[in-house]
Automatic annotation (TrEMBL):
GO biological process: anaphase-promoting complex-dependent catabolic process; positive regulation of anaphase-promoting complex-dependent catabolic process
Gene Ontology molecular function: any one: anaphase-promoting complex binding
Record protein name field: Cell division cycle 20 homolog
Cross-referenced Pfam families: WD40_CDC20-Fz
Amino acid sequence: MAQFGFENDIHSILKLDMPITNGPMARWQRKASSSSSSALSGLSPSKSANVSLGSSKTPSKTPGKSKKQTPCKMGGDRFIPVRNNKQMDVASFLLTKENEPVESWLYIPNRKAWSISLNGYNIEDAKILHLGGRPLNAPEGYQNNLKVLYSQATTPASVKKTRYISSTPDRILDAPELRNDFYLNLLDWSSRNFLAVALHNNVYLWDATRGDIIFLMKLEREEDYVCSLSWTKEGSYLAVGTSDCKVQLWDVEHQKRVRSMASHTARVGSLSWNDHILSSGSRSGHIHHHDVRVAEHHICTLTGHSQEVCGLQWSPDGRYLASGGNDNLVCVWPRVQDGGLGNRSQAIHKWSDHQGAVKALAWCPWQPNILASGGGTSDRHIRVWNVNSGSCISSLDTQSQVSSLVFAPNYKELVSAHGYAHNNVVIWKYPSLTKVVELHGHDDRVFNVTLSPDASTIATISGDEIICLWKSFEMDPVKKAKEKMVKSTTNITHQSIR
């Protein structure tokens, strides 16, 4: 027995020196097997025999691409989200469950409560990818032909400039003893920044530059009253129409009456200048032209209205005279020739579209052939006319009596003053006639509106005996500086020519 035990021990010892068949392969064996397999594959019919071992590696450059590489700059328009705080497990579940059959447990009514209690949120509302924050802007000089989807910087095209128009007047002036008469024109602003206002039988001037008030004149008789005012283009003379059928001419600088012209048989309610020609409209329906340079001032009479002429305006180029009357007519007259035409002048156009008295008349400064007119309480319409063609371009129902009109060139807008029933001032965009803003500052009907020399402010006068100043058309500082530069260049050019 001992002999058999000894033999077993000898055999167990010898087995340790034999190769291990079920153990891991040695390193030299693995290297040899890999080299032999690569050689066999290189000689296979489907592969080329001269392919090197290095060709199996991924190429360093993408085939077909140019040598110029995309510049690697920080702050480009690519955005790679950070995934460390995203719900990747929820995202994986939501993506994989779309291909799985719908299970019955999903339709349990309280599945939402289970999801909230287990996950802290409803898994049906979970977002697969959530972008928190925006990328930085690209550095200066960086160019990319791809379309940028968004940027923190606002593009110039998206910046919308808005103009603020105050709903309250910038200044209010008292106008006691103002005559409450719709057909009179008691307010006018000169090119020298003097605002003239007629209060019963007195005329006052307000210096808008310094704020001083100047008393100009008073009619001799207490029962007489001032009906109309009109400045010359230079602003040095003021024409005054009175109820005693006269037209007075005053030198404002010396506060002296130059002359008094009598030709009408009724009160003079409207006046308008065209160089040295002063046109006056009377309650008799007649329009007189006065040449203020000569002693025989009355040179022409226009007879186109059957009732009082309450609106009178010369066009900016001096070619046409527009008149409106209480007979609901709008007439356009030709320019007066030197020497006068007697009573032979005929109206070019005579429009009867208005159903109320036409007092409001305004010529467009940037389109001299465009005339705007407004009707009274029975009409309430603003109509825009083309004098060249004689047609009505547009018509607008303002729902209120139109008492005065003026064009504002700074923003190409039209301002209308109204009486019954709104007693307000409205700014319209021209030519669309869309309402820009309504100005409410008067308690009674507004009679007249006039524009300041710089076209930035309008003055309105009302039956509540106050004058309101509205700074509604102040120009953009950049645009104003450009216009000033153009004017200075023009002046220098004129000086050099002289």
